[in-house]
Amino acid sequence: MTIAVVVFPGTNCEHDAVHALTLLGADAELVWHRETDLDDFSGIVLPGGFAHGDYLRTGAIARFSPVMAAVTEAADTGKPVLGICNGFQILCEAGLLPGALIANRDLAFVCKPIHVRVESTDTILTSAATVGDVLRIPLNSYEGNYIAPPQDLAAIEANGQITLRYCDENGDVSDLANPNGSTNNIAGISNARGNVAAVMPHPERAAELILGSDDGRRLLEGFVAATKTSPQTNSVAAS
Amino acid sequence: MKFRITIERKPGLADPEGKATIRSLHDLGYTDVQHVSFGKAIVVDIDSTDETAALDEVDAMCQQLLANPVMESYRIERIG
Predict the structure, then answer these.
(1) Could you say which of A47, A68, A163, B25 would form a disulfide bridge with A188 (CB–CB 3.0 to 4.6 Å)?
(2) Which CATH number does the domain housing residue B49 bear?
(3) Parent domain of A215
(4) Has residue A234 been placed in a domain?
(5) Strand-pair partners of A145
(6) Is A48 inside any structural domain?
(7) How many domains does chain A have?
(8) Domain, as residue range, for B34
């Protein structure tokens, strides 16, 4: 089965995503945002970039692209849906994940390798990792500062839906190790079911050592594995 | 019929632009400034003669697309 990597006007990390998934042995193909049927895909990636120019709010317009009804349907059926960077923002706008992403604390575009610590492994993003793993992955965003209403924040903390937190190279989570002011150092979250996950830094840009780190593989391997056991919505398959 | 939608960040949420700006205002001597918050204004022009219906329509637009209730509040005024 093939993974759909959705391309909105302004998306710019789609080829990185396809490349990294291919390295891990998965089939991945680009799908234009006007597609309305994703039944034949075993998983979906909303990659990074600036969908629809980031106009209005990041992800706000992409959230109403025709493909999003199919993404929502896939998420509801339990298929793995992964948002990276701009994809994180889109999933929040779509209501598939709680909260929102606002401008970084210091109003600077942060583009550098950072460290994240794995906080939970019950999700399609972290199932191949171990709690406490420290991963070095590039961050590349202006609106990477995660916020959520207090009741949502309490719920995702209590339910183990926080998958990754910004930390230093030793795994210590602190204000100093927080690159963008994100609430509780949150770098990645999932939905309660664990099949919709999003991450602000870019694991697909850290999937081979020639790029300085292959730590991102540990995240993408979990996602690829999840797509292999993904629920099928295409009932036409020959039996 | 023209309406201006003013979108403001919900109180209590981080407002890095407001924070940076208040720092600069203080540096310029406006030391009595207590708070600066950023928002945005959107003007929509609607082909309608029914103000109540048009207002309802603009409100629906705000709820669906123009404002994000997680971080923003909005108000609508008729300006033309």
Answers:
(1) A163
(2) 3.30.1280.10
(3) 2-228
(4) no
(5) A102
(6) yes
(7) 1
(8) 2-78
Q: Which of B17, B66, B71 sits opposite A100 (nearest CB)?
A: B71
Contact status of A230 with chain B (Cβ, < 8 Å):
no
Residue A145 touches chain B, beta carbons under 8 Å: yes
Q: Please give the residue of chain B at the shortest CA–CA distance from A61.
A: B65
Name A229's Cβ contacts closer than 8 Å, sequence gap at least 6. none
Question: Are B14 and A149 inside 8 Å of each other by CB?
Answer: no
**CB atoms B70 and A106 under 8 Å:** no
pLDDT tens, residue order, chain A (239 aa):
899 999 999 999 999 999 999 999 999 999 999 999 999 999 999 999 999 999 999 999 999 999 999 999 999 999 999 999 999 999 999 999 999 999 998 889 999 999 999 999 999 999 999 999 999 999 999 999 999 999 999 999 999 999 999 999 999 999 999 999 999 999 999 999 999 999 999 999 999 999 999 999 999 999 999 999 988 655 444 43
Q: How far is A98 from chain B (nearest CA, A)?
A: 9
CA–CA separation, A79 vs A34, rounded Å? 20
Q: Say yes or no for a CB contact (<8 Å) between B68 and A147.
A: no
The CA distance from A231 to A173, in Å, is 36
Interface contact B16-A181, CB threshold 8 A: yes
User: Which chain B residues are Cβ-neighbours of A148 within 8 angstroms?
Assistant: 70
Q: How far apart, in whole angstroms, are the C-alpha atoms of residue A62 and residue A80?
A: 19
Q: Give A11's strand partners.
A: A49
Residue type, B55: L
Q: Which helix (H) or strand (E) holds A219?
A: helix A216-228
